[in-house]
Amino acid sequence: MLTKKQIVRFMAILLIVCSIFLTWQWFDSKEWLRDVGLLFHQPQWLVFMFVIYLLSFLLKAAAWRIYAGPEVRFSIYFHAISYSLLVNHVLPVKAGDGVRAGLYMKHGGKSWEDAFHSVAVMRLLDMLVLAGIGGIGIVRLGLPSSWIWVTVLAGGTVILATAHYLPVIRKIPFIVKHSAYFHLKMLSGKGIIIIGLIALSWILEAGVIFAVAHMIGLQLGTISLVWANSMTIAGQIFHITPGGIGTYESTMSGSLVLLGVDGKDAYRAALVSHTFKFLFAYTLGAYSLVRMPLRWREIKTWIGRLTSQKKPSLNGNARKDD
Predict the structure, then answer these.
(1) Highest mean pLDDT of the ranges 3-7, 27-31, 57-61, 188-192
(2) In the chain, how many domains are there?
C-alpha cells in the first residue's frame, strides 16, 4: 500500500511531467521575454501586483499574530513568513516552515513546540480556506464528482471542530494541549477574524494572475481568477522543486483551461505570474535578510528539525538561540 509520502511524490512527478510536455509544446523564449517585458512596459500593473501581493502577506502575518499572540512584534511574524517564502523558492523541498517556526522561536522567545504549533495551524487554515474556495468553484463549474469534494471538505471541518472531544484524542496529553489552544482561539470571535484575514489574503494574491490576464488579453472574471489561483496554490503541496517549478505551471494552466482559456495562453499566463512570484520572493527575502539577518547555521538547523524523520523536540525546553 502506498504511503502518503509516496503518493505526494508520485503526484508531484506527474505534474512535472505534465509541465515538461506543456513546455515542449508551447514554450517560446522570445515570447516569454516579451511577456515578462510587459511587467516593465506597463509599470502600473507591476506596482499593482507588488502592492497587492505584499498586502496578502501582511494579512497572513496579522492572522498569525492574532492566533499566536500580540506580545510578539508584528515584524517578527512578517519576516518569518518572508523567510519561509524565500526558502521555498530556493530549495527543492518545501522547508520554509522550518525557518518560519525557527525565526519565531528565536525572536519571539517561544519554545520550538509552541512555534511549530502555530505555524502548523496557520498552514492547516490556509489549506482549509483554499479547499473551501476550490470547492465553491468546482460546484459552480459543475465539474464531475463535485459532491465528493464538498463531502470531504465538510467532513474535515467537522472533524477539526470536534477532535478535541474525541476519547482517543483526549488520551494523548500533547495533542490535548494543542487542540485545546486551537479550540480556544478558533471557536472564539478571534477565529472568525483569523479565517477572514486568511481568506482575504488568498483573494488578494489572485491579483497577480488578474494583472497578468489583463496584460496578455485574457477575458476572465475576478471570481474565476480567485478560484484558479486557489487551486494552483493548493497544488503546491506537491512541491519538490524550487518554488514549485512545474507543479505551479501545470495546475495554473489546467485551472485556466477549465475556465475556457486557450491552452497556450493559459501556459503563458502561468509562466509570467510564476516569474513575478520568483522575483517577489527574492526581493522580499533580501529585505528580510537585511532587516532581520539569520545565519546559515540557524537556517540549516531549523530545516533539519522540520525534515528529520524523528519528531522535533517537543518538551518545551528547546534552546532559543539554536
Answers:
(1) 57-61
(2) 1
Domain span at 256: 32-307
Report d(CA 261, CA 2) in Å as an integer. 35
Q: Give the predicted TM-score (pTM) of the model.
A: 0.83
- Label residue 18 exposed, middle or buried (CB < 10 Å: 0-12, 13-18, 19+): middle
Cell, residue 146:
463535485
Looking at the chain, the number of H-run helices and the number of E-run strands are 15, 0
Give φ, ψ of 284 to 5 degrees. Answer: -65, -40
pLDDT (tens digit per residue) in 97-134: 999 999 999 999 988 888 988 898 899 889 888 888 88
> Domain for residue 95, yes or no?
yes
Measured in whole angstroms, the distance separating CA 112 from the mean position of its chain's CA atoms is 21
Name which of 41, 183, 206, 33 is nearest 121 in CA terms: 183
The answer as to whether 227 is a domain residue is: yes
Cell of 119: 505555524
